[in-house]
Amino acid sequence: MIRTAVFPVAGMGVRFLPATKSTPKEMFPIIDKPLIQYAIDEALAAGASRLVFITSSTKPSIKDYFSDNLKLESRLTKASKIQIPEDFIDVVPSNVECIFINQDFPLGLGHAILCAENAVGDEPFFVHLVDDLIYSEEPCLLQMKNHFDSYNHSIISVEKVPIQETSKYGIVELSKANNINVINSIVEKPDPIDAPSDMAVVGRYILTPKIFNFLADQEKGKGNEIQLTDAISKLLLEEQVHAFVFDGIRYDCGSKLGYLKANIEYGLRSDELGNDFLKYLLALKKESS
Q1: In tens digits, what is the pLDDT along the chain, a chain of 289 residues?
Q2: All structural domains of the chain with their residue ranges
Q3: Which of 56, 81, 155, 269 has the lowest CB atom count within 10 Å?
Q4: d(CA 131, CA 251)
Q5: What pTM does this model have?
Q6: Residue 225 and residue 237: Cα distance in Å, rounded?
Q7: Which CATH number fits domain 4-254: 3.90.550.10, 3.20.20.70, 1.10.10.60, 3.40.50.150?
């Protein structure tokens, strides 16, 4: 059983300045629910019961999101015309443990994962990058967990990207073994000419605790940060790591265009808003043509 999900949410959100001066990008809404809630729901659907948030002292609103707002709840209750959404009261079920760990310095994803070592313990664990929102019938982490239950190897989710965009991602070289995608090598943000493939790492991992041994000794790499990719390269020498091609649509909500796409497409899928929103978009298109 995988009990723990780690959420690295200490990033500075530079691409969304000035909005991120006061609001962490993880709290940006897709329709009426913040990105971090989508991440939580996906982890819970995969069976996680301990949520570990690697955050920053400059982002108190993330921790505040999990606290009861009794004053606001009372005001909403008294306003009889307002129905309080169930997920306003219960962000996570009462049996789920939430742990908040400050990453004092932005030293990279690998360092953020290392900060979670004591909370994770000697167990496999999920890593979920909140920026990567994945829409799927079966939650992506649950898809990966089902694969892990069969093979008990570390797993990295991947998808094909345009070759000219490899410098934005970790890129893997794959081989097939018994119909399984096995990672032979992994490189952090290679130039297109140096990329071993067009298969990019996206924000979902299942890692065995052995990764902490490599992160603890990992020197700074690309961007002068401790890269998780570099530690996984060393892990490959000791155990098989699988690449998982998930079933779903990924939205890069760390980019402005990806965030806009997510809001539009989730809006169109909404039972409440979808029909009216589609009518609006069709009318807008007609006006602009």
Answers
A1: 899 999 999 988 889 989 988 899 999 999 999 999 999 999 999 999 999 999 988 888 888 888 765 455 556 556 555 565 555 556 888 899 999 999 888 788 999 999 999 999 999 999 999 999 999 999 999 999 999 999 999 999 999 999 999 999 999 999 987 788 999 999 999 999 999 999 999 999 999 999 999 998 877 777 778 889 999 999 999 999 999 999 999 999 999 999 999 999 999 999 999 999 999 999 998 888 7
A2: 4-254, 255-289
A3: 81
A4: 8
A5: 0.91
A6: 22
A7: 3.90.550.10
